[in-house]
Amino acid sequence: MKFTAAQIANILEGDVVGNPDVEVSKLSKIEEGTEGSLTFLANPKYKPHIYTTKASVTIVNKDFEVDASLTTTLIRVDDAYKAFSTLLEYYNQVKLNKKGIEQPVFVSESASYGEDIYIGAFAYIGENVSIGDNVKIYPNVYIGDNVSLGDNCIVFAGAKIYSESVIGNNCVIHSGSIIGADGFGFAPDENGAFQKVPQTGNVILEDFVDVGAGTTIDRATLGSTVIRKGVKLDNQIQIAHNVEIGENTVIAAQTGIAGSTKIGRNCMIGGQVGIVGHIVIGDRVRIQAQSGIGRNIKDDEVLQGSPAMGYSDYNKSYVYFRNLPKIVDRIDQLEKKHTFND
């Protein structure tokens, strides 16, 4: 799909400097620009690249000053970075603008769906499923019985949504994700063998939740595993049964959260963090990558380490740890000197 500089400027409410009819069909970094590509300049340290880039169109700030000749057509806007982000969002909307029901698919007779939907080939839609307007379900998606899927959702290829799950509006579920698998519930019998505890609850994703590729969110044993409005989950995260994650919390890849833990609002959790079950983490907590959380955390704490401690305490302790051999040598020398003096 091709766009002219004039069309892009119209979308961004910008001004064209150069050829308004030049066409672009792809995006690029400014230093890697090629003919037919669109790029942007927001960071001043990349300014030298604008004089050598082969990109056909470059988005710049209105106050950008030209110091040498250019071969790229400029689109001047108030904020180049924000404008490029807007354009990326628009590009995604155009790219993902699929509609209709491909064949073969299976859609249960008891399922219902709204207007302007897309269901890709080999998708399975179970009994009593409710699908809202403008939903896109890509090929090989499985949606189990009694699932509710709100408006403007995107479920990418190969994702699995188990029965009874409730998905809000404007959610994105990426490929390979599994919503509503059984929680890890087993109890030992009198012989020491582990017997499965039935997982009879469900998963609820509120509005504007993003679930990364390969992430698993387990159904509750009783009640619901709840992911609140605006939560963003990276790839390959494990969220166990009966967990609750507060609004606008973001979690990076390979984090694992054990059962029945409650996480507050506006938290930021780094990659490969391990969180034990049955604890409460407050609001606005920040946890650095590879930390291990084994206790309740108060609001606004910043943590690092395993087991995690206060961020500043960790940094001080780490300095001592790195210097431990030198410290031991000094202690040995002091002990030898003391022994000799005795």
TrEMBL record:
Gene Ontology MF annotations: N-acyltransferase activity; UDP-3-O-[(3R)-3-hydroxyacyl]-glucosamine N-acyltransferase activity
Give the UniProt keywords, A-Z: Acyltransferase, Lipid A biosynthesis, Lipid biosynthesis, Lipid metabolism, Repeat, Transferase
The annotated pathway is: Bacterial outer membrane biogenesis; LPS lipid A biosynthesis
Per the UniProt record, the source organism is Zhouia amylolytica AD3
Q: Which reaction does it catalyse?
A: a UDP-3-O-[(3R)-3-hydroxyacyl]-alpha-D-glucosamine + a (3R)-hydroxyacyl-[ACP] = a UDP-2-N,3-O-bis[(3R)-3-hydroxyacyl]-alpha-D-glucosamine + holo-[ACP] + H(+)
Q: Which residues act catalytically here? A: H241
Spell out the protein name for this chain: UDP-3-O-acylglucosamine N-acyltransferase
Describe the task this protein carries out: Catalyzes the N-acylation of UDP-3-O-acylglucosamine using 3-hydroxyacyl-ACP as the acyl donor. Is involved in the biosynthesis of lipid A, a phosphorylated glycolipid that anchors the lipopolysaccharide to the outer membrane of the cell.
